[in-house]
Amino acid sequence: MTLPEQIEQKKNMSPGSPLSALKAGLAPGPACGGIQLASCLTLARGRVHEIMGDSADVFALMVAGVADGPVYWIGSWREIESLSPTGIEDFLDPSRFVLTCCLNRGETLWAAEQALRARSAACVIAQLQDGPDLRESRRLQIAAEEGGAVGLTLLRGRAGNSAAETRWQCMARPEGGWEWICTKHKRGMPGAWRVSWRGKHHAPDLVPLAATASA
Amino acid sequence: MRRILSLWLPRLPLERRIRLGDARTEGAFAIVAESRNAWRLTHLSEAAGKAGLVPGLSLTDARAICPSLLTEPADPSREGALLRALWRWSDQFAPRVALAPPDGLVLDISGCAHLFGGERAMAETLLQRAGDLRFTARIGIADTKGAASALARFEAAPVAIAKPGETARALEPLPVAALGLDPALLNDIRRAGFQTIGQLYGIRSAELARRFGLALTHYLDRALERVPDPVVPASADPVYAARATLPDPIGLQADLEEVILRLAGAVCQRLGTAGCGARRYHLLVRPVDRPDEVMTVGFARPNATPGAVLQQFRRPLDKLKLAFGADFFRLSAESIEPLHPRQAGFSGAARREDDRADLVSTLGNRLGFDRVRVYAPEDSHLPEREYVTLDAMARPDAPAWQASPRARPIRLYHPPEPLRVETPGRPPLAFEWRRQLYEIARSTGPERLAGEWWQATGGAMRDYWRVETRNGPRLWLVTRPGLAEPAWYVAGQFP
């Protein structure tokens, strides 16, 4: 199908019909669904999302808690070792975790790609220092589209120019709860939310901060 | 007419040490084993024999007689493996060879002896070849297994042959112990006054059976060929391996993969027929210009799928640089375990389990299986000992998790990271950690935990404080109580 044909078909199809989107080849197969974190926030499956900030762990754990299936946490030995399942159990069952310790950035990216490509993972969390570049993130993106898992890259340092679907800045608020700022969204609007959480059996409660915020 | 050759290796455990190059065997040396509530000598070196020691002596007595005696405990499993190796070696003499543990072999040489120039020449050849391997051997040849082994063990000459049909006469002068009876039964027979096997010939079997039980008549009947006692060769250990020798060397990745797939198909088919899977596969590649390369891949679960084997070998094959190609390949399976067939359900749980095992294998084969881990709970009150991590490969099913009764951080730093106090307090009102200044807004604590005093490395008593900082992060601070100059650490981070 050539590009003009695709555009033509896009014009003809009824808006919001996932079936027609699938037929048109515009939406990748397993990526149709999303992980609904809250009533107003859905994170696309089969995509890679970038999380930054000092409480990026919490964001990742909330996403992993909602995703159903094994969770692969990939990172350096130091990062993996400091994770504590006794605290994680407030978010999800630690027996769902498979920890993968890598020695360097190359191994981490390779392991993340393998885990995303395999269909067993529901959520793949890769911890990196600096964000993946365009080529690295595109590879992760393709692997995620094949496997259908939601991929999260937790960045300690700077984010690069990447192919990530969304990018989040997560901070803990001094008065309790967190602040999530979506600084990039390929198919939606960025926004900012104040988030609170009332335990394992509740969805996080999101309150938009700015008037422009929307999911 | 059956002809049986019994090969006895009287010094097998000792000669195993000699073959290993153990220098102690040149002096007074003995192999010892535990029997009748004591360590006793079983096999002696020549020097130990000359010092006046005999087999069966207890180790304490032997040390009193010969203070310079050096000993080594018997290793039945390795000696058994050595005997098994000899069993494979001895099929050069006869097609039907059985093991007679712990130190003998039985060969059915019917119709084989003439190939070596007669029975005596055959026995001499066997002795010589065993001698080349540094084994002392004794040989008995007779019509039955019992008679041959009696001759091997109880005749003075290294080769004892009973002519066809003369078994009874050959056994006549031998002691009753040559029948290989149970020690208690042997004691009874000796107490009844029987010394040689010949003395038993005159007694009717019914009377022997009434006095000593059926075991004695069984042994006697088998030795004298009144009942059949065939040599039953043991079957070889199954080896799951396949090899390919090619007329011309190949080097292209696609060709290599095709060869591996065919070899894996052959190996996996045999594994599948046996209802087994392998946890490890070795691939030997012989490049034409270099020594052999051996690659190994592991699996999280026993596996007998050719595609999965190829999938795991793809990466090592890719790294293999073949300038001139390779023409010999051998794939062997190891760590064979039974494979339980399962029905594929509609829920996809079984398939998901397979996918998980595949992924763990893929990650483990590159990173190392010790670096793919899962959590398991532990019974302790100390935060750093409430859980352990296990190899994901060792635990194909993740262990069930038990909830911790106390609120614990999601990041736990062990050992805790020191912080620099800016404004002192209990806990400090302001501090610097990881090059960032924190001011405390609220704090809860202390939570005092005693160390595990019943363990050598139980740890000391500590006080934990849960603090909320003005910057946002909620930290877990720890200090040792009762110190004049308290040192503070960050033990963890709460969500």
Automatic annotation (TrEMBL), chain B:
It comes from the Bacteria. One of its GO terms (biological process) is DNA repair. Keywords: DNA damage. Transmembrane segments: none annotated. Pfam families: IMS. Residues 30-149 form the UmuC domain. This is Putative DNA repair enzyme.
